[in-house]
Amino acid sequence: MNIVILAAGMGKRMRSALPKVLHPLAGRPLLAHVIDTARTLSPTRLVVVVGHGAEKVREAVGAPDVQFAVQEQQLGTGHAVHQALPLLDSSVPTLVLYGDVPLTRASTLKRLLDAAGTERYGVLTVTVDDPTGYGRIVRDADGAVRKIVEQKDASEAERRITEINTGIVVSPTRTLEQWLASLKNDNAQGEFYLTDVVERAIEAGVEVVTAQPDAEWETLGVNSKVQLAELERINQRNVAYALLEAGVTLADPARIDVRGTLECGADVTIDVNCVFEGRVTLGDNVSIGPNCVIRDASIGAGTRVEAYTHIEGGTAGANVVLGPYARLRPGAVLGDEAHVGNFVEVKNAVMGRGSKANHLTYIGDSDIGARVNVGAGTITCNYDGANKHRTVIGDDVFIGSDTQLVAPVRVGRGVTIAAGTTVWKDVGEGELVLNEKRQVSKTDYIRPTKKKV
Ligand code: UD1
Ligand code: CA
Questions:
Q1: Closest listed ligand to the CA of 169
Q2: Same structural domain, 173 and 258
Q3: Given a cut of 90, is residue 320 above it in pLDDT?
Q4: Does 10 have pLDDT greater than 90?
Q5: Lesser CB count within 10 Å: N end or C end of the chain?
């Protein structure tokens, strides 16, 4: 089967410089969702019809299996499909999808494809409470589809019909070519309507069949930011319910956003207002506190992520404690039972099993062994203004509070670093390291007081 995705429209009502189909839903362009669904049907040809912002659209969703047809002027949905014809395999049917209708399920499309087979013309229709604006499905006394009439061309009686055209259709391709070529634009909008193909099919003696989606939201399109926000909520609710069905505990399914994929083990608990981006994996018994943002991360079994933790790429082992207010950046790798506490940032660094950095610390470009205690206020000075350097710390090191480690530097296993030390030379195994300094107390000091004016 061929799949044609219409994505040439400008989307004036979005009031944005970004082409409509590139507006993100769940963190990805609307069109990317449609292409993903299309791919699950294994089309032989996948063609996107672009027009407004064609270059941006190509850049955003370009892939080896996607071809683009350009519709220079938006002369209607029938005209749009016409532009794709040279790229199609005429021996198999063509399914038409819309780049701004992101949530149609593959199972619904399969139902339509099954109903149409290779010889029939299939239309995905849905009956709605308020059909305003949509094309209406006009049936005869026997219930057979006669035509589709657009809102603007419909009679009073036709406007009362509540079964509407979702726009998604499937057609034998060879005949579609002829039908599209014969379309006229003598209608209220002066456009070449894809919907008029139905009458051509009937004239040609081709049977027209319909199928319906399981849910109405599958056919909703995005024309405005309001509709985009509504679809985002529908999508997030669906994702949240799927997580609940899979056994994840959500404090509130209305207060989680997944912009990517979230895989959860058994007995995972997620508190309110968490955002998951990219690819996130949570092991068994992981608990996520409120207000966490977690992107591209793998979190091991039994790990506790406390409130306000921000992860932008990283791996945590089992039974780790993170946060509150911890930050992991790309390349952070925490061994089992590590603790990373409040206002601690870890970037491109490994912390071994059971190591702890509980307060106010920056660990960057470092290899930290097991059971290391990183005192409050410790900083790895990894950047010399031009290059990054590594800090290497052996097992069982005790780092006193307010220590600076000026990289490149190596600290042997079992070392004790006194509080307030600047370590700029390597330290041998088991040594105590400190900077010599004096504590001075003065008795004649008078603290300044504010002058009264
Ligand atoms: C269309 C259908 C209508 C249906 C509705 C469902 C026609 C004539 N009407 O109406 O029956 O109920 O969708 O939402 O088909 N597009 C192009 N090039 C064009 C025109 C449109 O690529 O020249 C694309 C748009 O970007 C959009 C889609 O086709 O993604 C639908 O176009 P739109 O103008 O929104 O169609 P409607 O008038 O809503
Ligand atoms: Ca239109």
A1: 1
A2: no
A3: yes
A4: no
A5: C
* Start-end of H helices in 188-269: 197-203, 225-245
Residue 453 confidence (pLDDT): 83
301 and 203 in a common domain? no
Give the CATH number of the domain where residue 279 resides: 2.160.10.10
Co-location of 190 and 309 in the same domain: no
Which tokens sit at 389? 């350097």
pLDDT at position 295 over 90: yes
- Say how many domains are in the chain: 2
CA of 150 to the centre of ligand 2 (A): 9
d(CA 391, CA 397): 13
**241 and 304 co-located in one domain:** yes
In a domain, 272, yes or no: yes
Domain contains 406: yes
Q: Which domain holds residue 100?
A: 2-219
Nearest atom of ligand 1 to the alpha carbon of 98: 30
Identify the residues whose C-beta falls under 6 Å from ligand 1. Answer: 6-9, 49, 51, 71, 74-77, 79-80, 98-100, 134-135, 148, 150, 164-167, 193-195, 221
At residue 70, the pLDDT reads: 98
Residues marked as catalytic:
359
The model's pLDDT over 406-432, given as tens digits with 9 standing for 90+, comes to 999 999 999 999 999 999 999 999 999
Task: Report which ligand 1 atom has the smallest distance to the Cα of 99.
Answer: 30
Q: How many CB atoms lie within 10 A of CB 172?
A: 22
Q: Are residues 191 and 231 in the same domain?
A: no
Q: How many CB atoms lie within 10 A of CB 343?
A: 16
- Taking only the tens place, the pLDDT of each residue in 46-61 is 999 999 999 999 999 9
Name the helix (H) or strand (E) containing 395.
none
CA–CA separation, 391 and 369 (whole Å)? 11
The CATH code of the domain that includes 96 is: 3.90.550.10
pLDDT of residue 375: 98
C-alpha 165 to ligand 2 mean position (Å): 13
Q: Note whether 55 and 192 are same-domain residues.
A: yes
Q: Phi and psi for 232 in degrees, rounded to 5?
A: -60, -45
Q: Which atom of ligand 1 is nearest to the CA of 192?
A: 8
**Residue 450 is assigned to a structural domain of this protein:** no
What b/e sequence results for 278-317 when a residue is b if at least 16 CB atoms lie within 10 Å of its CB, and e otherwise?
eebbbbebbbbbbbbbbbbbbbbbbbbbbbbbbbbbbbbb
**Same domain, yes or no: 156 and 282:** no
Q: Tens of pLDDT along 75-98?
A: 999 999 999 999 999 999 999 999
State the ligand closest to the CA atom of 192: 1
Mutational test site, ligand 1, from 23, 77, 130, 171, max ligand atoms within 8 Å of CB: 77
Compute the distance from residue 294 Cα to the ligand 2 centre, in Å.
Answer: 40
Enter the pTM of the model. 0.93
How far does residue 103's CA lie from ligand 1's centre (Å)? Answer: 16
